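Anyone up for a design puzzle?
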């Protein structure tokens, strides 16, 4: 009997250890069965100040709420800060997020960090603006070339097919606006021989102020101008301010891109004759959804077009146009 008494503490210790391991395994099992995994997705815009990006943010947040995805929203303040956007991408790679949605502000400079993310097993969906090459999961964006075509047709319409115009460009390396500019330029050149370009190679830069200064200088240099196309929100507003400053708003025809409170007001007042509208909430939503589909093993399309529509003073109060002019993003972001 003495040997059995000698080993009794060892047996009790082993029993207690087994019970502890069993309880821990049960807790792990309960945790795993409590619900689906929450994926962590970084959404990186070109910038964070324009109304367009607030709507993209809202779409991403909406997708996150509906699909069980935790959204991390971070981007450079200025849309020409390539180095900062690259740093943001690299930071999220080091944090091992489950995926990245990126609107590259330069179609070449962001290739290397995207390649790095893909090598690390972090899938990347590109949105809004093209990235050279095809080392990404999907591209979710407006058909920007078609947006430029619509803008060209609208400006030609309000000019009666003839006149002298400015094509104000945005920023070198910005693929989305480059395609808009190309669509506009090629359509005018091919289809409207009565329209003459006074300017077609000047860049407005990334802010309203720089666009205002450029347009002001051009108006002083070319007072005979009759129409202007600007390819994004800040360049459109800068051009509008310059026209207002010279008392030319509504007289010189202006067609722009995207929407804001002040641009809507100018459209109502016929100071702007057309705004090519994207669907930024849809873009942000679909980009997150497509990324999650890929992560969970579902097939995704390589290119997804989120649509483009021309708003005019005549059609702006139609419900389908108004919803694009004023997307309801306040429900999701401040």
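Challenge accepted. My sequence:
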């Amino acid at each position: 009997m003495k040997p059995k008494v000698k080993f009794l503490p060892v047996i009790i210790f082993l029993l207690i250890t087994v019970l502890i391991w069993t309880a821990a395994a049960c807790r792990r099992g309960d945790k795993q069965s409590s619900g689906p995994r929450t994926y962590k997705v970084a959404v990186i815009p070109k910038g964070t100040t324009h109304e367009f990006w607030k709507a993209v943010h809202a779409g991403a947040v909406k997708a996150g709420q509906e699909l069980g995805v935790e959204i991390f929203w971070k981007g450079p303040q200025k849309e020409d800060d390539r180095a900062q956007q690259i740093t943001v991408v690299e930071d999220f790679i080091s944090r091992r997020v489950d995926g990245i949605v990126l609107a590259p502000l330069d179609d070449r400079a962001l290739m290397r960090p995207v390649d790095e993310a893909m090598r690390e097993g972090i899938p990347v969906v590109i949105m809004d603006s093209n990235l050279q090459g095809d080392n990404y999961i999907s591209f979710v964006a407006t058909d920007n070339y078609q947006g430029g075509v619509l803008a060209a047709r609208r400006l030609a319409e309000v000019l009666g097919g003839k006149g002298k115009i400015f094509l104000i460009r945005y920023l070198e390396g910005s693929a989305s606006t480059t395609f808009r500019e190309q669509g506009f330029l090629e359509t005018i050149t091919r289809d409207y021989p009565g329209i003459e370009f006074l300017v077609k190679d000047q860049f407005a830069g990334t802010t309203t102020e720089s666009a205002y200064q450029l347009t002001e200088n051009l108006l002083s240099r070319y007072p005979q101008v009759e129409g202007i196309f600007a390819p994004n929100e800040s360049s459109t507003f800068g051009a509008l301010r310059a026209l207002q400053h010279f008392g030319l708003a509504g007289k010189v025809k202006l067609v722009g891109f995207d929407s804001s409170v002040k641009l809507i007001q100018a459209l109502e007042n016929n100071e702007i004759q057309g705004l090519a509208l994207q669907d930024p909430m849809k873009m942000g939503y679909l980009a997150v959804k497509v990324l999650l589909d890929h992560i969970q093993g579902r097939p995704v399309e390589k290119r997804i077009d989120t649509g483009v529509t021309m708003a005019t003073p005549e059609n702006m109060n139609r419900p389908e146009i108004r919803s694009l002019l004023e997307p309801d993003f306040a429900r999701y972001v401040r």
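A detail worth pointing out: The longest helix spans residues 2-33.
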